[in-house]
Structure formats: structure tokens, C-alpha cells
Predict the 3D structure of the following.
Amino acid sequence: LTILPSIAPPPYDEYRQAIIDAGVKIVETAGSSPEPHMQQFTDAGIKVIHKCTSVRHALKAQSLGVAAVSIDGFECAGHPGEDDVPGLVLIPAAADALEIPFIASGGFADGRGLAAALALGADGVNMGSRFMCTVESPIAQAVKERIVAASELDTNLIFRTLRNTARVAKNSVSDEVVRILNDGGQFPDVQPLVAGARGRKVFEQGDIEAGIWTVGQVQGLIHDIPSAGEVVRRTVSEAKQRLQERLAQFA
């Protein structure tokens, strides 16, 4: 349940009720505070994981009674917050401050990342861009191939001047959005470029220049399009191997 400023805000109360009626037992909230939804979710026996881009927001979510938080470093796709703190600093800082479990998000694509996150104090990792680029992912093949071909340099940060930063794929549209806003433009000046309908066309039709679409810097570590199951198996296997090898070196 992502609660963010938008051109046409969705009916969040109705979304919440649909989640409850569907029998969902774990919900991730993101963006604004989950507080308006906590009582209803708690009464329905639903555990809430709140996505945070700072330790202070994570502590606030903890005080509201969430079961866990997702800590998103600056590398992540989508909204990384305005503090620009990367995961290597943010994850251990969260581990020092929090009493509830937390998931490390942003910049993870393989077992090396999982091993690092566990060593830094996280209880697991969340991988978005990596699972976008799998056989089962319901996005156009052309988008998956674009992720494989891209490097860690092929993203843009848009809405920086509006203090609503979002990390998206670098293409002609996001380049234009950055240019307009850096030249003093405001949201109405880029609204037609960032419309969600254009972004859906990217994912549904595979036209990677049709609009804005999100992907993380971690695309530079994604080199194939395996099954989702294979991603899980090799991530866990590689993490175990990395941890065992490193521990053995210091034994």
C-alpha cells in the first residue's frame, strides 16, 4: 500500500478494505506514515512491514507497532528519500537503533549482497529489480533485456528539486524531466511526461522510451533472465558459500 503524492490520489481506505477482505496477512506500506491504517490492519490480524529510507522513519514506524521495516538505501529504485544515505551506512545504522526485524532493500541482486546485508545486521533482503528480470515477471521481454544490457550508471534521479526524488531508468523521457526541472520547471511542466499510463506502456508493450519506469542501480549486477526459483536458490547458495569462505579465512 504505497501512500505517495500523485496526480489523482487513489482511494486508500478502499484499498485497505480490499486487502483485509482478501485475507492478506502481511502488508508492506510505503511513503507516508502507516498510522491511519494500523488499527484496521491490526484488528484484522495483518502484520505490517513499513518501507523506510531513514532510521528516524524506521523508529517512528516501530513506535506505531509495525512488525518489521524495510530499510531502503539510496541505491534503490523508486523513491530513496531525500537523505541520500547508501545501504552500507543505512543498514548497520538501522541495526544499531531498531528492536524489531528489518529487511535490507536497494542494491541487492545476488548472494554477495545477501551475505553483506546479514553481516551488517539485517534479517534478510528485498530484491525488486532482480525479480523484474526473471522469466515469470509479467513485464515485456524488451524491458528485461534492457535491464541486462544496462549498467549501474543507467538511471536518473528525477524530482530532486521538488524534494520527491525518484530513481528511474535513464531514457529520453527521464532525461527531459531532469532537464526541465533543473532549468526551474515545476511539476505541471513535467506532468505529461511522468503520467502513469505512459509508464504502463513501457512494461506492457516493451517500448522503453514510452515513459518513466523504475529500476535500481543494481541493474549493473544483473546479467541474465533466469526463473524466480533459480534466483532464490543461487542467492541463498552463494550467500552461504561467501559467508563460510570468509569465516574460514579468519578462523
About this structure: The radius of gyration is 19 Å.
